[in-house]
Amino acid sequence: MGNEEGYYKMEKTALYDFHKNLGAKFVPFAGYEMPIQYKEGIVKEHISTRQSAGFFDVSHMGQLYISGNNSAEKSLEKIIPLDFKEIKTNQSKYSFLINEKGGVIDDIIITRVEGGFNIILNAACKDNDIKEIAKCLNSESKYELKKDFSLIALQGPKSENILETIVQGVKQLKFMNGDYFKFQGQVIYITRSGYTGEDGFEISVQNKNVENFIKLLSSNGTKPIGLGARDTLRLEAGLCLYGHELNQDISPVQANLKWAISKRRRKEGGFNGWENIKNDLQNGVSKIRVGIKPSGRIIAREGTKIFSSSGEEIGIVTSGTFGPSVNAPVAMGYILSKFSEINNKILLEVRGKKHDAVISKLPFYKKSYVK
Amino acid sequence: MSEKKYSKKHEWIALNGETATVGISKHATEMLGDIVFVELPEKGKGLNKEEKAAVVESTKAASDVYTPVSGEILETNQPIIDDPSNVNKDPENNGWFFKIKIKDKSELDSLMSQTDYEKFVKDNPN
Asked: What CA–CA distance (Å, rounded) separates A78 from A91?
């Protein structure tokens, strides 16, 4: 079998050999060779994350540091629709980089740290993100992609107790807050956050120490989790994945994520694409992101067409799989707003046949974040 | 039942008189991962050799299952519809997909023996 990606040089994270030794199956993802699953498989990895804890190597994501407080804030407010005055030191926020049309360049987590900001960028978007951010910044701000740091997500209800035995003090962190800690004499940064619908942490640790760190997690009974389970976990939690629910032509309002635009910014604007977003906010959107629950076990994958009960084509599925914790198929997609009411009956066309489904509230799986 | 035979598309078939039982190989289930959905053909349906007969889905993707011989579908395995993980648990016995009334036994000649299939899998790991 041919593999077109094989002609390009794939990047590897610092943990590549570690994953390989654990029997990981690799897939090309955003230019990286990433583990999609380990020996136990996606369903077991998913369940053990929800019931206990699991760790994910997400070092393919970009870790961008921007220095400069006041000047950087003003610049970043052009491209990120947050009220930077509201963000306290060590506080994290979910938001977007917005383009001129009000579409999403990327969805991000930004954290204010001493003297600047850390921004976590999606792997496939990071090079372009940096160009877009650099365009906004003035000469006082410097930026740096921290390539010598790995990023590990530890997710699941037992994360707190497990991580506390390795890094004392993490128990004190509140959800969407971070701080500096020490690991083997080196300064690391940890936020209480994640993308699975579970309590958890994201740990930014030096490449040279990441394997030691992971081995400590493993010896505490934490299992490695691949990108396959990361996708089923985030989908059950109703969270968007860039390139599926989000892209340059979708506005945060269409994505049903207007909460990630700060209140003041929703009134005052002053960021890229404001005219379009203002229009979306004031007049509503013609299509909107919804949760979809197919009846039975039928799985509606990305690209599945959505029809009204009278047969009119009204939307498209952007992500769909079987949710191991809800024990049923789950999907998200975009649908004409007038059909978006919860429990509204729709039809999904899978392999030429139309199947019943309903619009579902999100998340499919209830979160258990520590506030 | 006679010896199992295998297709290049990773189906197995076991002949029993004029009928045969068809499923997917253990190797196929390992490649697919956790199976979460199965769609089986309707009883009485006539299918030609290598025609699409069933669908299996893992959490990752959907894959087609083909019939290795021509014939008429006699019976399908309801327990794998009710709980698709039964395919992963025992792919080459209880995880069978359908029983088919064989039209032309000579179609079995082009299929592989278990030894040949194991070699085929080794040479074509994906």
From this structure: 20
| DSSP at A276 | H
Report how many domains make up chain B.
1
Chain-centroid distance of CA B111 in Å reads: 13
User: What Rg value do the Cα atoms of chain A yield, rounded?
Assistant: 21
Residues of chain A in contact with residue B83, where contact means CB-CB under 8 angstroms, are: none
**pTM, full prediction:** 0.93
pLDDT digits (tens, 9 = 90+) for A114-154: 999 999 999 999 999 999 999 999 888 999 999 999 999 99
> Alpha-carbon Rg of chain B, whole angstroms?
13
Is the complex ipTM more than 0.90? Answer: no
* B60 min Cα distance to partner chain A (Å): 7
Residue A7, amino acid: Y
The domain containing residue B85 runs over which residues? 5-103
Least-confidence region, from A136-145, A171-180, B89-98: A136-145
**Residue B63 covered by a domain:** yes
Q: Beta strands A223-224 and A54-57: pairing type?
A: parallel
Domains and CATH numbers, chain A: 8-240 (3.30.1360.120), 286-360 (2.40.30.110)
- Interface with chain B: mutation pick from A48, A49, A321, highest number of B CBs within 10 Å: A321
B52 inside domain: yes
A68 pLDDT above the threshold of 90 = no
Task: Give the pLDDT score at A206.
Answer: 98
Backbone angles phi, psi at A127, to 5 degrees: -65, -45
Q: What is the CATH number of the domain that holds B29?
A: 2.40.50.100
Q: Decide: A193 and A179 in contact? Cβ < 8 Å.
A: no
Q: Look-up: residue for tokens 């760790």?
A: A55
Question: Amino acid identity, residue A254?
Answer: Q
Measured CA to CA, the distance from residue A273 to residue A253 in angstroms comes to: 12
